[in-house]
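Quick check before the chapter quiz. The format below is the same one you will see on the exam, so make sure you can read both the input and the output lines.
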Amino acid sequence: MPKAYWIAHVDVADAERYKDYVAAGAAAFAKYGARFLARGGRFESLEGASRQRNVVIEFPSYQAALDCWNSPEYRHARAIRQPVSQADLIIVEGYEGPQPA
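Here is the expected output.
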């Protein structure tokens, strides 16, 4: 079963209040087996629009990624995040096929 990923691009308007979101989201992420692969950090925008922060979160399955998004724990965290940030977020299923030579 392929893993799945949340890919988020976020502009944060209030960094102090955003910390409350990070703390609140921890319970949901732990419950659904999330692992952060990228969480902010340095980046280079090569094409298209970009935001201040880029986040990639790995989940053990597509269903786990969806369940986390829809969970009461994450709904609570999301309610904290939305007034203090703008985000684009997608869930994408991982690829387990052959790699190019």
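If your answer matched, good. The chain has one domain: 4-93.
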